[in-house]
C-alpha cells in the first residue's frame, strides 16, 4: 500500500504539504485534485522518488513497478510504435540481451531468453502497442511514422500510450485527457477501468473522474483529505461541510436565483424530451452543489451584445475543406440567437473544419454562407493562445481592445478570471497554458459576442474555471456552437447535438450515452471484413509457433488431469455398484442387520456425494481441454 505519514513537502520557500496523512490500498483508483500550484505534480515526483520528503514518511512497497506519463519526448527519430514499446523496459532489456546472444550464437542463452520473452508477453507486444495507439486515435500509417512528424498534442498521446504499455503496480497519470478528443477519452476510460494496479490520476474532467476513480484525494490547505467515491460524491460531501458557512449560503442563494431563471427559460423550449431532461437535471444538480465551490476564484459572464441579427449565420449546400480537399459536403446549418449546439464526431471527421469556416478562418469551397448584419463572433481555439502577445500583460491586452475604458473597470473585469493585483501587469510569457486560456476567454467575453464558437475551450482549465465557464455559458443569451471533450460542459450548456461523420453534418437524436454506443458501432464499421485489429498483421510466424508450442505445453497437464479424474470416477462407480448390490439383497433389511443396513446407507450417501463432485470436476476439465484444443487448432 501507499502510506504517507506526517508528511511535509516543500518547494523552495513554499510549503506544499504540512503534516499530511494518506493511505491507499492496492488496486484502489484515486483522483488527486486541488488548486493549481497546490502541489499535485510535486506529490507525483515524491512518489516516483524524484523528490525527497522534507519531513515525515512516504512509504511504498519496494518491489512495486511505477509507470507515469512523461511530459517530454527526446527520441524524435524513433517510430511511434517503437517509442511506445520502449515503455516496457524489461521487455526491451530481454530483447537487447537476445540480440547479443544470437550474435554470439549462444544456444543456451538464446533458449533461456526466448522463455523470458514469452513470460514477458514479448511475442504479442507489437500488437498490444498498436492496439493502444489505435485506441488513442492513431491510424495504421501514423503508427510507423517518426515521433518528429507529430505535433505537441499527439506527442503527449504517445507519452500516454508509453505509460499504459509499461507493466506496473502503480500508475501515475497527470492530466491524461488534456490532448484527447471525446472518442479517445471514452476508450481510455474503458482501459483504466480494467487496469488491475493502483491508479492515481490528476484530472480536471469531472465525468472522467466519476467514470474511473473510486476515491478522491483533495489537496487543500497543505493537507490531504481522502473521500470515498468519485468526483460527484466528493462535491456533495464537501458541500455538506461548507453549507454551514454563511459565505457558502449567500453564494448558493445567488446561484440558485440565476439557475431557476435559466431552467424556466429552458423548459419552455424543451421539445426534445430526453436531452431536455438531462440538461435540467444537470442544472439542478449544479445548484445543489454550489456550496462546494464557494472558494472559487472565478466569477464572470459574457457581456451582452447590444445588437443582434436572426439568423446570425446561414450556411446552405456548404462544401467545406482545405485547398482542393473536401472534408464536408452538403452542409446545411442555421444559427439563431439562443441556439445551444454541441458538435460530436470521430477524430478528424471535420468538426474543427466546420468551426473554422463559420469563424471566417476558412472560406467555403462551395455553397452559400450568409452572415447576419449585426453578427459578432467570439471564437476560441487552441491556436489563439499562441497568438497572444507574450510581452504584453492581461491589462494591456484588454486596454488594446477597450482604449477608452477606465483602468479600474478593466482590472475588476480581469479579477473575475483570477487576474488580480500584480498578475494583471505580468507579461504573458510567464503564464501557464491554463492562464493563457483564461485570458483568451476574458478577451472574448469583453467584446460582447452574440455567437460563441468554442473549439475545446476547457483544455488546460481546472475544475473551478470549468464550472465558472459552464455557468457563464448558461447565462449567455446569444448562440453557442461548441466542440469539447468535457461531457459535463456539453450536458450542461447544449440543447442539441450535431454529428459530424462520413463527410456529412446531421442532427444526432440522442444523448452522450447514445453517442458512446454509436462510436462502438462506427469503429467496428471502419475495420474491413476479414481483417484484424492494428498490429495483428505484424505478428510473425515465429510468434505463432511460440504460441502453439505454449498451448501444447498447457494441453498435456490438462489431459492428464482429465484422465486421472475419469479413472477415479470409474473406481467410484465400481464401489457404488457394490454397495447398491448389497442394498438390493432383501436379507439386509432383517431386524438383526439394522446396524449393517445403516452403515451401507451411509456409505451409499457418501459415495453419491463424492460421485457428484468428481463428475463436476471431470466435466470442467473436459471443457477446458476442449477449449485449449480449439485454440491450438486456430494457432496452427
UniProtKB/TrEMBL annotation:
Coiled coil start-end: 548-582
Domain of life according to the entry: Bacteria
All copies of domain ABC transporter, residue ranges: 2-246, 310-527
Keywords: ATP-binding, Coiled coil, Nucleotide-binding, Repeat
Entries under Pfam families matching the protein: ABC_tran, ABC_tran_Xtn
GO molecular function, one term: ATP binding
InterPro entries found in the cross-reference section: AAA+_ATPase, ABC_tran_Xtn, ABC_transporter-like_ATP-bd, ABC_transporter-like_CS, ABCF, P-loop_NTPase
Family classification: Belongs to the ABC transporter superfamily. ABCF family. YheS subfamily.
Protein name, as recorded: Probable ATP-binding protein YheS
Record organism: Pseudomonas pohangensis
Amino acid at each position: 500500500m501507499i502510506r504517507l505519514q506526517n508528511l511535509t513537502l516543500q518547494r523552495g520557500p513554499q510549503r506544499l504539504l504540512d503534516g499530511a496523512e494518506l493511505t491507499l490500498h492496492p488496486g484502489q483508483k484515486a483522483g488527486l485534485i486541488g488548486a493549481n500550484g497546490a502541489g499535485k505534480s510535486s506529490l507525483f515526483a515524491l512518489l516516483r522518488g524524484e523528490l525527497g520528503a522534507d519531513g515525515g514518511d512516504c512509504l511504498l512497497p519496494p518491489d512495486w513497478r511505477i509507470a507515469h506519463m512523461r511530459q517530454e519526448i527526446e527520441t524524435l527519430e524513433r517510430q511511434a510504435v517503437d517509442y511506445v514499446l520502449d515503455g516496457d523496459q524489461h521487455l526491451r532489456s530481454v530483447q537487447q540481451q537476445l540480440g547479443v546472444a544470437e550474435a554470439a550464437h549462444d544456444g543456451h542463452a538464446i533458449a533461456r531468453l526466448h522463455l523470458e520473452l514469452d513470460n514477458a508477453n514479448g511475442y504479442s507486444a507489437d500488437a498490444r502497442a498498436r492496439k493502444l495507439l489505435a485506441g488513442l486515435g492513431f491510424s495504421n500509417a501514423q503508427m510507423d511514422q517518426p515521433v518528429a512528424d507529430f505535433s505537441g498534442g499527439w506527442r503527449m498521446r504517445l507519452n500516454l500510450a508509453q505509460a499504459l504499455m509499461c507493466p506496473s503496480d502503480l500508475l501515475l497519470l497527470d492530466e491524461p485527457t488534456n490532448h484527447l478528443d471525446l472518442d479517445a477519452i471514452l476508450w481510455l476510460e474503458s482501459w483504466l477501468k480494467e487496469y488491475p494496479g493502483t491508479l492515481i490520476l490528476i484530472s480536471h474532467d469531472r465525468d472522467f473522474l466519476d467514470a474511473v476513480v473510486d476515491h478522491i484525494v483533495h489537496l487543500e490547505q497543505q493537507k490531504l483529505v481522502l473521500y470515498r467515491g468519485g468526483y460527484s460524491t466528493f462535491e456533495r460531501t464537501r458541500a455538506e461541510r461548507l453549507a454551514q458557512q454563511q459565505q457558502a449560503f449567500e453564494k448558493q442563494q445567488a446561484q440558485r436565483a440565476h439557475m431557476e431563471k435559466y431552467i424556466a427559460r429552458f423548459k419552455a423550449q424543451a421539445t426534445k424530451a430526453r436531452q431536455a431532461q438531462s440538461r435540467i437535471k444537470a442544472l439542478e444538480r449544479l445548484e445543489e452543489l454550489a456550496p462546494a465551490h464557494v472558494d472559487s476564484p472565478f466569477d464572470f459572464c459574457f457581456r451582452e451584445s447590444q445588437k443582434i441579427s436572426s439568423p446570425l449565420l446561414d450556411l446552405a449546400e456548404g462544401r467545406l475543406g482545405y485547398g482542393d480537399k473536401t472534408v464536408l459536403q452538403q452542409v446545411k446549418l442555421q444559427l439563431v440567437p439562443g441556439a445551444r449546439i454541441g458538435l460530436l464526431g470521430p477524430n478528424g471527421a471535420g468538426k474543427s473544419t466546420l468551426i473554422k469556416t463559420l469563424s471566417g478562418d476558412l472560406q467555403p469551397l462551395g455553397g452559400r454562407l450568409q452572415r447576419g448584419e449585426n453578427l459578432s463572433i467570439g471564437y476560441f481555439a487552441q491556436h489563439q493562445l499562441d497568438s497572444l502577445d507574450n510581452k504584453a500583460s492581461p491589462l494591456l491586452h484588454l486596454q488594446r481592445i477597450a482604449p477608452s475604458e477606465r483602468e479600474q473597470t478593466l482590472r475588476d473585469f480581469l479579477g473575475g478570471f483570477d487576474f488580480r493585483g500584480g498578475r494583471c501587469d505580468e507579461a504573458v510569457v510567464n503564464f501557464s497554458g491554463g492562464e493563457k486560456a483564461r485570458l483568451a476567454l476574458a478577451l472574448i467575453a469583453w467584446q460582447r459576442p452574440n455567437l460563441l464558437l468554442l473549439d475545446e475551450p476547457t483544455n488546460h482549465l481546472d475544475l473551478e474555471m470549468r464550472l465558472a465557464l459552464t455557468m457563464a455559458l448558461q447565462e449567455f443569451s446569444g448562440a453557442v456552437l461548441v466542440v469539447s471533450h468535457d461531457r459535463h460542459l456539453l450536458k450542461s450548456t447544449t440543447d442539441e447535438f450535431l454529428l459530424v461523420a462520413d463527410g456529412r453534418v446531421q442532427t444526432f437524436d440522442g444523448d452522450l450515452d447514445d453517442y458512446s454506443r454509436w462510436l462502438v458501432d462506427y469503429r467496428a464499421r471502419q475495420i474491413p471484413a476479414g481483417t484484424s485489429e492494428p498490429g495483428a498483421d505484424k505478428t510473425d510466424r515465429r510468434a505463432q509457433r511460440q504460441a502453439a508450442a505454449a498451448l501444447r505445453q498447457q494441453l498435456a497437464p490438462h489431459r492428464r488431469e482429465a484422465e486421472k479424474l475419469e479413472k477415479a470416477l470409474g473406481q467410484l462407480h465400481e464401489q457404488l455398484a457394490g454397495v447398491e448390490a448389497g442394498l438390493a439383497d432383501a436379507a439386509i433389511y432383517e431386524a438383526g442387520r439394522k446396524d449393517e443396513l445403516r452403515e451401507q446407507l451411509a456409505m451409499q450417501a457418501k459415495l453419491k456425494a463424492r460421485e457428484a463432485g468428481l463428475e463436476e470436476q471431470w466435466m470442467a476439465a473436459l471443457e477446458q481441454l476442449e477449449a485449449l484444443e480449439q485454440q491450438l487448432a486456430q494457432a496452427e
